[in-house]
Amino acid sequence: MRGAWRILCAAGLVVVVLSGSGCSVQSLKESNRRLKESNDRLISENNKLEEEVLALQRKLAQPMPEPPPQLAMRSADPGKAPRPEGLDKELLLDDDVEVAKTSQGLRFRIPDRVFFALGQATLSKRGEQILGKVAAIINRDFPGHMVRVDGHTDDTPIRKVKHIYPSNWELSSARACTVVRYLVQKENVNAQRLFPAGFSHYRPVATGSSPTAKGKNRRVEITILNESV
């Protein structure tokens, strides 16, 4: 009996050992599977990061785009306002018209003699041609920007047409409104983007009472503002 009992105990021990060994193998297989999944995931993420890095490197290697022609400034001639590159050929304006990029926006400064007869607010044919070119720039290159039209006079009091324009306030405002009306009615500039202002003689650009100084102060300024509607 004792011999049989020993044989049974030995057999049971073998079964226990084999059972424990089976559990260890299964556990190792599960761990190996998880490690493989984690490794595959890391490889996939690494490949994705490499693709993003290559795309960024290609983007950085491309040349920087040129600034819009209406904002690129060139050196101004002595005594003249700077004129943005690209606008000279398109506008074909003469030396009477100054185009400059200011802190407020792109400004066109036109002497009153280009637009109006002395003491008048009726637009000339030459003025209409220039406004057509300015309107083309507004509509094409600045479709969402506000546009301010300022009328300015010299300090000579109104006399001959005092019954129409009691002061330079009325004359400067009427000229600004004439330009705005033409841009809207003839050149299809959105009326919601335009507003006129008359400054009389209170914002001179030249000092003194000489004909040259007075001529510079009598002007219309059209500014395409930086702000959008």
Proportion of beta-strand residues: 5-15%
Could you spell the SSE succession in H and E letters?
Answer: HHEEHHEHEHE
Uncertain parts: 13-18, 64-83
Indicate the mean pLDDT.
79
Instruction: Indicate the CATH topology of the largest domain.
Output: 60s Ribosomal Protein L30, Chain: A
Strand order in the largest sheet: 1-2-5-3-4
Helix count, DSSP H or I runs of 4 or more residues: 6
* Helix/sheet category: alpha+beta
End-to-end distance, in Å? 107 Å
What's the domain count? Answer: 2
Q: Which bin fits the share of residues in helices? A: 40-55%
Please tally the β strands and state the result: 5
| CATH secondary-structure class of the largest domain | Alpha Beta
| The CATH fourth-level homologous superfamily of the largest domain | OmpA-like domain
Give the overall silhouette. Answer: rod-shaped
CATH architecture of the largest domain: 2-Layer Sandwich
Compute the gyration radius: what is it?
40 Å
What this model shows, in words?
There is one protein chain. This protein has 229 residues and is of the alpha+beta class. It folds into two domains: 1-62; 87-228, 60s Ribosomal Protein L30, Chain: A (2-Layer Sandwich). It is built from six helices and five strands; from the N terminus they run H-H-E-E-H-H-E-H-E-H-E. The chain has a five-stranded mixed beta sheet with strand order 1-2-5-3-4. Strand 1 and strand 2 (105-111) form a beta hairpin. The protein is rod-shaped. The termini are far apart.
